[in-house]
Amino acid sequence: MLLYKDGKDEETHYQVFVGNWESIIRHNEEADYGIYPYRVAVNQWADMTTEEYLNTATGFRPDLKHTANNSDDVYRGSTGHVPDRYNWVLRGAVTSVKYQRNCASSWAFSAIAAIESQLVISTGKKVDLSEQNLIDCSENQGTKGCSGGTPDRAYQYVIQNGGLDSTASYPYKGLKNACHYKPDKSAVITGYKSVQAGNEEALKDAVYNIGPISVAIDASPFGFQFYSTGIFESTECSNSRDKLNHALTITGYDVDGRRDIWFVKNSWDRTWGEAGYGVMSRNKGNQCGIATSATYPTGVQANLNKMLVY
What we know:
Cathepsin B, Chain A; 5-stranded antiparallel sheet; 7 helices; 18% strand; Pept_his_AS; protease; hydrolase
C-alpha cells in the first residue's frame, strides 16, 4: 500500500484500487469456468498501477551484468536419479516468509533465502539473516538498495565482505540506510554458482541435489501481482533475461495431475499466494523466465553460537 501525498492522490489511487478489484472479480469468474488454473485476490499492491507495482514490489534488475557465467560456475545437472517430486518446505529446510515492503529488494530476499536454507541443510538450525545488511552495504558490488539488484551481486558482497549479519543484529527497515555491518555476528559463503540458463531439467536437478534456488522471473502479469491460489500460468510474461524484474526462491517441484509445477517462496508477506508461497507451471517453455537466471551460494557457514536460531 502506498502513502498518499494528499487527498487528490488518495482519490486517484482509490480509483486504481477499484479497477484492480473489478479485474480480480472478472478473473475469478473466468477461473470458475476453467479459463485460468489459478485465482487472484486483493492484497497490499491493490492500490498501485502496474508501473508503481513493478517499481516498488519487485527488485531484480537485469541491466546489472550476470557474473556467474563461466563454465566452472555453471551447474548442468547430475548423473544420479532425481525423483519426480521434492519439497524442501516439508523437510523443514526453508525459513519463514518475509516482507520486503515498498522497497524493490527482492534480489536481497531471494539470495538470503537460499543462504538460510543452505545453513538449515548443513546444520539443522534456522537463522534469519539480514537483507538490510545487503541493501545498505553492497553498493560497491553494483546493487542499488531499494531500487534493485541481483542475487549474484549479493553473493559477491558476502564473499568480499567476509560475512553477513543476522536480522537480530541488523533488522530490516525497508529503505536504504548507512552501512553498519558487525563482523562478530556473521554468516559466510565461499562462492556461488548459476544453473544452466533456460534448462528446467537442470534446475529441477539442482533443487533436489543442492537445495532451494534463487531465481528471477518476469512478474509483470496482473495474475502474478494478485496471485492467491492454484497453478500460476501465463502467456503474458517473457523468459528473456532483459525482461526479468523480480527475484524469488524455488523451494521444490511436483506433478499436479498432468501439470509439472514449481513451488516458490516470495517476499511479499503471507498475504500473497498461499501464506506467502506460490505454485508455478514447470516445463512450459521456461515460463516467465524462471530458469533464465538461477543461482545458489556455496560454502555456507555461520557462527551459530552468536546468532539467534530456531
